[in-house]
Design goal:
Helix content is 44%, strand content 12%. Helix 3 crosses helix 9 and helix 5 runs parallel beside helix 6. The chain is globular and about 60 Å long. With 209 residues, the chain is an alpha/beta fold. The longest helix is centred in the middle third of the chain and has 20 residues. It has one domain: Rossmann fold (3-Layer(aba) Sandwich).
């Protein structure tokens, strides 16, 4: 028996999620971008954040490097640590979601099990899984951080796509094929897909209670 768990009593928020969404005039969702390192996830996330800001939406971006530099700086890249990384990220995203904020997550999240874990925490209806489909060769050629080259030389263990697997999402909500496509085009594709899910029609806007 976990005695620590028995002494934890989370309280329900004083204001409902809907009240906060009505105040912000938006429907909260977690937009989860998955794909190989260098696929363009973070760049698309930043472009999407800017595009949504210009349309009056409040967002938060959770990005792999930033999270590992702070909240998850005690985790490595073993399968167990990767799962814990995703679990913590999903819990943070859920907190933003409950406060009416559109949360953009950009993480490799390489296995179906990890992505399923995130959905189980956040809620399947609230998580939009977006597969940024960029070929290994394109990712390797971009390699602005030099990670692929270092991994192929044995300098990085458990690097996804080189010496650790990436499981292609079986049924993503949206697949962005980046070949011969600009970042702006990829951002527009995501925006067009999610806009109906986050927009509150004018006829449904009400004062928060």
């Amino acid at each position: 028996m976990n005695l620590k768990s028995e002494n934890i009593h989370p309280f329900s928020e004083l204001l409902s999620r809907q009240s906060k969404e009505d105040l912000l005039v938006q429907r909260a969702r977690v937009l989860w971008l998955t794909g190989l390192s260098g696929s363009g996830k973070s760049t698309i996330a930043r472009g999407l954040e800017e595009a949504l800001y210009k349309k009056g939406f409040l967002t938060a971006v959770l990005d792999g490097d930033n999270i590992r530099a702070g909240l998850n700086n005690n985790l490595g890249f073993s399968n167990e640590d990767r799962e814990e990384n995703i679990r913590r990220i999903a819990e943070v995203a859920k907190l933003f979601l409950q406060n009416g904020i559109i949360t953009i997550c950009a993480f490799v999240s390489p296995t179906e099990a990890m992505r399923t874990l995130a959905k189980s925490i956040i809620g399947e209806d609230d998580l939009v899984e977006i597969f940024v489909n960029t070929s290994f060769e394109d990712c390797r050629q971009r390699d602005v951080k030099g990670l692929y080259a270092k991994a192929q030389q044995g300098g990085i263990k458990d690097f996804t796509g080189v010496n650790a697997p990436y499981e292609i999402p079986a049924k993503p909500d949206l697949e962005i094929k980046t070949q011969n496509k600009s970042i702006a085009e990829s951002v527009d594709e995501v925006l067009n897909y999610v806009f109906p899910k986050i927009r509150i029609p004018h006829s449904e806007i009400r004062n928060p209670s």
